[in-house]
Design a protein that fits this description.
Layout lengths: L15 H26 L16 H11 L4 H14 L10
Helix pairs in contact: 2-3
């Protein structure tokens, strides 16, 4: 029984299925590689601008040293008062 819908084979439409799945696989691999690459660098360097992350402020470094036990509480407060005079907690690191 011949009908108008039968043309003797699958025709060129058969190429759409492999092309579709190739696009899905390539997209998945690309997404996975970008995600893994960002995870390795950390959130501060995940930007695509190419900038290096800013150095931590001296007050932040002092807090880390105190938390690590490198300096005691008296030395921490002494150094913090000096840094507050020079940098201030609200300033961006510029000397007055």
């Amino acid at each position: 029984m011949n009908t108008l819908a039968y043309s003797g084979g699958p025709g060129p439409w058969i190429l759409l299925f492999p092309l579709f799945w190739a696009a899905v696989v390539i997209g998945g691999v690309t997404l996975l590689r970008r995600t893994v690459r960002r995870g390795r660098r950390g959130p501060s360097q995940a930007r695509t601008t190419g900038e290096t992350p800013a150095e931590p402020s001296p007050i932040t470094l002092l807090g880390r040293r105190f938390a690590a036990g490198e300096i005691d509480e008296d030395e921490y407060w002494r150094r913090l008062s000096v840094l507050d005079e020079q940098f201030g907690r609200g300033s961006k690191g510029g000397a007055a």
